Amino acid sequence: xxxxxxxxxxxxxxxxxxxxxxxxxxxxxxxxxxxxxxxxxxxxxxxxxxxxxxxxxxxxxxxxxxxxxxxxxxxxxxxxxxxxxxxxxxxxxxxxxxxxxxxxxxxxxxxxxxxxxxxxxxxxxxxxxxxxxxxxxxxxxxxxxxxxxxx
Amino acid sequence: xxxxxxxxxxxxxxxxxxxxxxxxxxxxxxxxxxxxxxxxxxxxxxxxxxxxxxxxxxxxxxxxxxxxxxxxxxxxxxxxxxxxxxxxxxxxxxxxxxxxxxxxxxxxxxxxxxxxxxxxxxxxxxxxxxxxxxxxxxxxxxxxxxxxxxx
DNA sequence: CTCGGTGCAAAGCCTTTGCATATGC
DNA sequence: GCATATGCAAAGGCTTTGCACCGAG
Lengths: 151, 151
Prior knowledge:
globular; 151 residues; 3-stranded antiparallel β-sheet; 3-stranded mixed β-sheet; 6 strands; 46% helix; alpha+beta; DNA-binding; homodimer
């Protein structure tokens, strides 16, 4: 974990930004809750536990900054709230998501899966792909089991 | 076009909703601008041209309704505005988008492309896919040409 | 007459911004 | 000391809601 903080610190310094205590606290929360897809408000509340004096605006500004530096990805599942997701170390692509329409759970898929499709897009549409967002909506394994039991 | 209006009328009636003049005007705008990705405000302004008395709230309510009935898809390209896109007739899947980060243009891809990937998701993750959202971010053909010229 | 639909304005959210203060180099 | 970063509160932008009125069956 310290290693990753260090890396981020360097990334910030490279653009002459500072890793202030508030920013570090925010990054730590993101690291601890890497599997989740926290909203700005979620992050704020969690950071507040360790650094009660932090303001919501700072969290927004920090998340915006991290987003610009491609350290986190800003995603939107259509519920009107932005969520922030730490990029996997060394990942060139954004990972995909499985959103369950029954229980709202979000699963991550790290595998690329889109290599062939991207090649097609480049070749057939002449569109130079830089990044992508792929989300599947459906019913997760758990809810399928539930359904089978209840029915 | 009248044919499609009729179909939508039936879909509404089937759920005991009415195709009021306001709703019809809204649907007509969506049909006329099928290639675009209009925001609620865009739709509102266009509808207002033919039916000046309409209110923005009604447009929102209509779009919400059409969205629930799966007649339109609500999408979000991350700019904080919802956009509304008519489903292609008989389409079971949402189509994909190529968003150019240079000029902001949005191209549509009707081809499925994800059959194999969806099969994998079902088989390997046990997730029953109902729908998907796929957006590529990158540089469109036009902007690539521009770049080549300017450089 | 009844109930869904509409228009308007007000309220609600999430997010951004202005500004004075505090902090790090 | 100076520029950057922060906190707070206010402002902003998009969307939803409350409420009285309207209109079709």
